[in-house]
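Lab notebook: predicted structure, single chain.

Context: the supervisor wants predicted structures on file for every construct in the current expression panel, including those that have not yet been purified. This is the next one on the list. No modifications to the sequence; it matches the entry in the shared construct table.
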Amino acid sequence: MKYHVYGIGNALVDMEFSVSETFLNENQIEKGLMTLIEADTQQQLCDKLTNTFGLKHRSGGGSAANTIVAISQLGGDTFYACKVADDEGGDFYRNDLQAAGVETKLDQIKGEGVTGKCMVMVTEDAERTMNTYLGITSDFATSDLHLEQLKASEYLYIEGYLVTSDCSRQAAITARKVAADNGVKTAFTFSDPAMVTYFKDGVSEIIGEGVDVLFCNEDEAKTYTNKDNLDGALMALEKIADKIIVTQGKDGATIITKGQRTTVQAKQVTAVDTNGAGDMFAGAFMYGLTQGYDDKKSGQLASQAAAAIVTTFGARLEKESLQVLLTDR
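Prediction complete. Output recorded below exactly as produced.
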């Protein structure tokens, strides 16, 4: 295998702001969720945020991209298939992935349009709220998959956000089928409570007959399965995934592999920004999984990585900050 993990997902330039609860309320922005917006709304919101609070941080983003970057920074071999436009944002995004050691085809393929952007608003309680204009990434399609790279991978990693676009959802379904036909395992993340609340049928369509690894948080698990407790949700999820990883914030994480439960404690830290915590957890866990770690060891590494990311602004860490977690083990 050439790649440990091949990822597909949205390509978004993250623009992060520290905001007040009042701002969210006054602008009727639903806290804690990812909400899709149009280009004109995005520009108005960006201007308002910049003028009111000032830009805190700018970086490459996208749920699966953040996970793939973490795997690469820890030492894994990765490829990311996505779509950016022939604009400044697209160049920024490509260079950002390249600097992180992630292979792409973005130097060869650029489309007409606008690279997607995500307004990440972080309140004083460290919770992140996202308003996203997908731009050209909503056109991510089967033709953008780079199937030879997929076939040369150990795992395919799919983000749940792809469900919001018909062509992107179909690309995810195609990728899962090609992976299955070529002995490549599939990992899937629900990504956000909104995906399983408003796009549940599409999420089920991507999952199909089941996946090898499923990432979610407790709210997503209960919402998707229509259960009011975690144990009931886990029993339902075991029917669609061989390995289930449920993150539970300060309560750590629960991992189920074919009926065997492993509990991982969270490292207690003071969070300033929870943006990217789930992506980072998934990245560190997937790194451990591809290096032969057991569930406990993978979960402990993931917990430490997630604790590190929430103590700083932005959804990604410097390579050295992740590498030190390996040397501390």
